[in-house]
Amino acid sequence: MAVVFDMKRCPEACNLQVGDSVDCTPNKDGGVIKKLMKAGVGDEFPNYGDKVFFNYTAYKGDEMTEENIFDSSEKDGEQFEYDCLRGKVIRGFELAVLSMRPGERSLIYLTPEWGFGKSGAPPRVPPDTNVIFDTEIVSVELHIRGECDGQVFIDKDVNFFMGEGSSDEHGIPPFIEPYLDHWKNGEEARINYAAKHAYGAAGCPKYGIEPNKDLVFWINMKKFERNGEYDLASKFYEEMIDFVQHDLCMEGAEEKRRRNLLLVGNLNLAQAYLKVDKNTKARDCCDTALTFDEKNAYLGMMEYEKAKKDFQKVLELEPYNMHAKKHIDICTNKMVETTQSERDLDRRMMSGIGKHSDDGSSLYSSGMDDIDNWDNNMAQGMMPLEEEQAAFGDISPSDGGNNHGLRD
Q1: Which segment, 76-85, 157-166, 345-354, is predicted with the most confidence on average?
Q2: CATH of the domain at 167
Q3: DSSP secondary structure string, 84-140?
Q4: Which of 26, 53, 82, 289 has the fewest CB neighbours in a 10 Å radius?
Q5: Is the domain of 170 the same as that of 200?
Q6: Measured between alpha carbons, how far is 144 from 131 in angstroms, rounded to an integer?
Q7: Sheet holding 215-223, edge to edge
Q8: Which of 132-136, 231-235, 287-291, 398-402 has the lowest mean pLDDT?
Q9: How far apart are alpha carbons 44 and 84 in whole angstroms?
Q10: What is the C-alpha to C-alpha distance for residues 45 and 322, in angstroms, rounded to an integer?
């Protein structure tokens, strides 16, 4: 039975003092414990659709030791980002992040129910295992200055989350944010907006901007680090995989469909990565795809020994992969069945030798018996003996031999 998660921001978790801890779960079941390590700034919290940037180190088990690290944003030298409340990270992690301010660092302790479930995430996270995330949330920091007819209507530093509506809450015009996604740290620019691309005929009473006014902005990007850029196809497949890979509570037909999506998504993403020379990531996608493959090409061609070796390789990569174990057993049974079938066939073939039919004739009579009267027409086109000897030499059998050069 699937678990229904109540993803509501915990008020107590929003007002912690450094060193304090709180249970973020609605039922206070101890599944999500957040401990504040460094206070953030402002009163802004992630909302639906906000793009959240953060650094993290993830540990399996109950101890934060180097040997227990199973994932980290530092491994690629890039910050991690996701769209809030769209099911792209495990539920417990997202519930805790809902109560984090920009610049805040917290430890997030998750039980299996709010983490990777009873199945875990082999081989990195064993089944039914607690996990800990050391997380620091990051945001966009910039200075923006805007003018209309030479009059300054906005001039301030802004710290906000990239995402739907977040920048507008801080007074940044909504047509500015889409262009920020391509900026780099320390970049400065002057941007001129024609009226139709700014506030248009409606104007903006909030800033005293009349209808149909051109605007000028100066922007200094103080802090913004983004993940590496991929081709559009890569982004689509990444989003598809993120959307389904953490839904670990599905069962039956829904779980089978989820696994098929992850198989196809990882294979296509691997191909897209190869096109942009991200070979290591392409290899990782292929390894992941193997863990979701319900069948095997060799298995389909009934080459069970080769198929078994493939599934054994999967177990080397992911020792807890139950599907691989299941298919190794299938291959073993098929190999036994095939061997038995071949033996039965040989036995049936050999059992007729020396036996006679109901009329007393042998079941395996000489093939010569099937030849009726020889007709010279049957020899039409054959070379005379003299021509054959001239062409191929004298290959007549020795005395007492048969036509294969062997003695009887």
Answers
A1: 76-85
A2: 3.10.50.40
A3: TTSS-S-HHHHHHHTTPPTT-EEEEEE-GGGTTTTT-BTTTB-TT--EEEEEEEE-E
A4: 26
A5: yes
A6: 40
A7: 151-160, 140-148, 215-223, 188-193
A8: 398-402
A9: 14
A10: 40
Is there a single domain that holds both residue 72 and residue 52?
A: yes
Same-domain pairing of 215 and 315: no
Residue that finishes a domain, picked among 223, 258, 277:
223
Q: Are residues 126 and 170 in the same domain?
A: no
| 167 Ramachandran zone, left/alpha/beta (phi>0; psi -120 to 50) | alpha
- Residue among 192, 191, 183 nearest 221 (CA): 183
Indicate the number of domains in the chain.
3
Judge whether 172 lies within some domain.
Answer: yes
Tell me if 335 is assigned to some domain: no
Question: How far, in Å, CA of 149 to CA of 146, rounded?
Answer: 10
Q: CA 104 to CA 41: how far, in whole Å? A: 7
What SS3 class is residue 366?
coil
CB 348 within 8 A of CB 321: no
Measured CA to CA, the distance from residue 158 to residue 102 in angstroms comes to: 11
Q: How many CB atoms lie within 10 A of CB 230?
A: 18
CA distances (Å), 248 to each of 56, 84, 314, 335, 339, in order? 22, 18, 20, 34, 40
Instruction: Bin 62: left if φ > 0, else alpha if -120 < ψ < 50, else beta.
Output: alpha
Residue 371 lies in a domain: no
Please check whether residue 369 lies inside any domain of the structure.
Answer: no
Asked whether the predicted pLDDT for residue 62 surpasses 90, the reply is yes
Query: Which of 254, 184, 257 has its CA nearest to residue 219?
Result: 184
Domain that holds residue 206: 141-223
Say whether both 16 and 37 belong to one domain. yes
Neighbours of 63 (CB within 10 A): 9
203, 204, 210, 215 alpha-carbon torsion, rounded to 10°: -80
Q: What is the pTM of this model?
A: 0.42
Residue in 107, 137, 109, 133 with CA at minimum distance from that of residue 40? 137
What DSSP string runs through 257-306?
Answer: HHHHHHHHHHHHHHHHHHHTT-HHHHHHHHHHHHHH-SS-HHHHTT-HHH
Query: Using CA atoms, how far apart are residues 22 and 100, in angstroms rounded to an integer?
Result: 13
Residue 86 reports pLDDT greater than 70 = yes
Continuous segment of H or E residues that includes residue 13: none
